[in-house]
Amino acid sequence: MVSFLEFEKPIAELEARIIELRQTANAGDIDISGEIDTLEKRAAKMLADSYAKLTPWQKTQVARHPERPHFRDYVAGMFDNFMPLAGDRAFADDQAILGGFATLDDRRVVVIGHEKGDDTASRVRHNFGMAKPEGYRKAIRLMQLADRFGLPVVTLVDTSGAFPGVQAEERGQAEAIARSTEQCLALGVPMVAAVVGEGGSGGAVALAAANRVLMFEHAVYSVISPEGCASILWRTADKASEAATAMQVTAQHLKSLGVIDRIVPEPVGGAHREPVQAIASLGAAIGEELDSLAGLSPDALRQGRADKFLAIGA
C-alpha cells in the first residue's frame, strides 16, 4: 500500500473502497467486477487530475514522500557494476553522501548522491541525507578521481540541506560546501546533475553545479525550505504553503528562470507510485545529456558551466 499524503485523502478513501469490494468479490459469488472497474477508472482520473494541478507546497510534500526512490534505488535500477568508494581520507566516511564507479548503459561514470534512507534505522545511519563536511570532501575526492580517469560525473541530489550541527561547523561545513561547488565547476569531464527529490540550499548546489541540471517533475529546489523561509518572514512555519509559492521552488518555475535545463516527467501519482518507470525515465534522460556533452573539450565544458551559472538572474 502506498502512503497517502494529506491532499490525497479522497483518493485514499476511494482506493480503500475498491480493496473492500475486491475482498467481497473474492469471498462470494456476487459479480461486482463492473462496479470495481468503474471505481478504478474514477480513482485513476482523480489521481491524474490531482497531480496535474499540484501547488508548490503539495509538490514539496511529494518530493519528500518517504517511499520515493532514493540513491540506492537509482544505483540498483539505473547503473551496473557499481563499486562504492568510502571516506574523505581526512576524518570519516559520511553515509549521507554515497558514490563510486559505475556503468550507465555502456558509459563508465562516477556517480555521487545523497541517501536519505528508507526506514528509521537507515535514516538515522544516513542522517536523513544531511551531509557533514566529510561527505562533501568525499564527493570532492570522487570528482577528482573522475577527472583523473576522464570519466563523466553523474550526481543525484536529494537533501533538505547540509547538516547544521555544531560539529559540522567546527569541521568547516561552509568551506567544504564551497570547495565541492568549486570542484564541480573545475571539472574537465562532463557533469550531469539530477534533483530527484528535495534540493535544499548549498547542500544541494555543492553536487549540482553541473553542465546539465535535470529535475524530476515533482521535485523541488530552493535556497531554503518553505518552513525555514516562513519562520523568517512570518515567524511561523504554518505559512510554509505561502512561502513555497512565493519562492518558486518547482521544476516548472525553475526551468522558466533558467536555473535548470530539463524536466524529467514522472509517472502519474509521482515517482513513489511507479519507481521502476521513474528510474528508467531518469536514466534515459541522463544518458541523452551525457551523449550531448561527449566530445567537448575540458575547456569548453568548464566555460559552459561558468556561462550557465553566471547567466542565472542576469
Automatic annotation (TrEMBL):
Any one GO biological process: malonyl-CoA biosynthetic process
GO molecular function: acetyl-CoA carboxylase activity; ATP binding; carboxyl- or carbamoyltransferase activity
Keyword Nucleus on entry: no
Pathway assigned to this chain's UniProt record: Lipid metabolism; malonyl-CoA biosynthesis; malonyl-CoA from acetyl-CoA: step 1/1
Domain CoA carboxyltransferase C-terminal residue range list: 38-292
Main location: cytoplasm
Compartments it resides in: Cytoplasm
Keyword terms of this UniProt record: ATP-binding, Cytoplasm, Fatty acid biosynthesis, Fatty acid metabolism, Lipid biosynthesis, Lipid metabolism, Nucleotide-binding, Transferase
Function comment: Component of the acetyl coenzyme A carboxylase (ACC) complex. First, biotin carboxylase catalyzes the carboxylation of biotin on its carrier protein (BCCP) and then the CO(2) group is transferred by the carboxyltransferase to acetyl-CoA to form malonyl-CoA.
Record's subunit section: Acetyl-CoA carboxylase is a heterohexamer composed of biotin carboxyl carrier protein (AccB), biotin carboxylase (AccC) and two subunits each of ACCase subunit alpha (AccA) and ACCase subunit beta (AccD).
Protein name, per record: Acetyl-coenzyme A carboxylase carboxyl transferase subunit alpha
Protein's organism: Sphingobium ummariense RL-3
